[in-house]
Specification:
Elements: H1 2-11, E1 17-21, H2 24-27, E2 40-41, E3 44-45, H3 46-49, H4 52-57, H5 59-74, H6 80-91, E4 95-99, H7 105-108, E5 114-116, E6 119-126, E7 136-138, E8 158-162, H8 171-180, E9 185-189, H9 200-207, E10 211-215, E11 228-230, H10 234-246
Parallel strand pairs: 1-4, 1-9, 4-5, 9-10, 10-11
Antiparallel strand pairs: 2-3, 6-7, 6-8
Helix pairs in contact: 1-10, 6-10
The structure holds ligand BJW.
């Protein structure tokens, strides 16, 4: 595919590159996306469960969904897309990965300079925000022993320490992601590009002069504004680019 050669040429010699990833990058690892056909769990839409209102209404239901996802993620492993991105960050100090994914597969692939915008599914925090320290704690047990885990400080309800709709992202993560938009090449891979503030990063990079590209088998709202689109799965395209970079 000629487009692969064009993107590889842009990447070769670039000292600052940022790749924004979304659920599509983990699809080949068996982790369901949010808005595709596999985004449906029972009769619920994933995006309707990822909200504070859903948790307030029915914490057991939301935890059941997270338990199901934690099981799938625990049984998965990084795919070639994660591996290539990790290799890029290890090789080049100005290359960053900004992810919306909470599955930690970029961490397991040993990615350097990873910015996680939406938290980690393996961390929990107090639903009431009781103020006990640590504010969030890691719990990788699958399955969790309780249908609704408890806060170890106040014994109230615990929640997944992820960012739901309407919640603020960690300002330090947002600032780091914004700094990473000062790059020569910005690639959005495996994201539907509709959730903000992540979706705004591509435009920010473009307005700072970056060459922009999208890797996604489907068109997204970003497709019409990027310089180059690669309509193929990330786990295929990224290794092909890597082959051109190292040959
Ligand atoms: C492949 C592939 C393969 C398949 N290879 N590709 C400005 C404008 C409008 C609205 C807002 C705005 N600013 C804030 C908002 C509100 C809201 C928002 O953006 N809403 C939009 C829906 C319009 N944002 C927020 O609420 C954020 N908070 C915030 O900004 O606070 C301040 C504020 C609040 C309210 C108003 C104004 C300001 C928080 C957003 C948190 C999102 N949380 C979730 C859940 C995380 C926890 C969890 O995982 O359980 O994050 S929702 C969900 O969407 C998840 C994802 O990270 C995120 C993005 O989804 P993603 O990754 O793009 O996945 P999909 O499924 O949508 O797409 C997959 C893509 O992969 C598809 O395109 C496929 O084609 C492709 N694909 N296989 C490559 N092999």
């Amino acid at each position: 595919m000629e487009q692969i050669g064009r993107l590889a040429a842009r990447l070769r010699g670039a000292s600052r590159v940022t790749v924004l990833t979304g659920a599509g990058v983990s699809a080949a690892s068996g982790v369901p996306t949010f808005r595709g056909a596999d985004g449906l769990w029972r009769q619920y839409r994933a995006t309707d469960l990822a909200t504070p209102d859903a948790f307030a209404r029915d914490p057991a239901l939301v935890w059941e969904w997270y338990g199901w996802r934690r099981e799938k993620i625990a049984a998965s492993r990084p795919n070639p897309a994660h591996d290539v991105l990790a290799a890029w960050t290890r090789r080049a100090p100005g290359w960053h990965v900004v992810t919306q994914n909470v599955d930690d597969l970029h961490v397991r692939a040993e990615t350097d300079r990873l910015i996680r915008l939406h938290g980690s599914i393996w961390e929990l925090s107090c639903w009431a925000g009781c103020g006990g320290r640590p504010k969030r704690w890691r719990d990788e047990r699958v399955p969790l022993p309780e249908a609704v885990p408890r806060c170890p400080h106040c014994c109230g309800l615990a929640r997944p320490a992820v960012v739901w709709f309407g919640e603020s992202l960690d300002p330090a993560d947002v600032a780091a992601a914004e700094r990473a938009t000062a790059c020569e090449v910005f690639v959005a891979a495996g994201t539907s590009a509709i959730v903000h503030p992540a979706a705004g990063l591509l435009e920010a990079a473009r307005s700072r002069g970056a060459f922009t590209a999208e890797v996604n088998p489907e068109a997204t709202p970003a497709s019409s504004s990027v310089d180059l689109t690669l309509r193929a799965p990330a786990e295929q395209v990224l290794p092909e680019i890597e082959l051109r970079l190292i040959s």
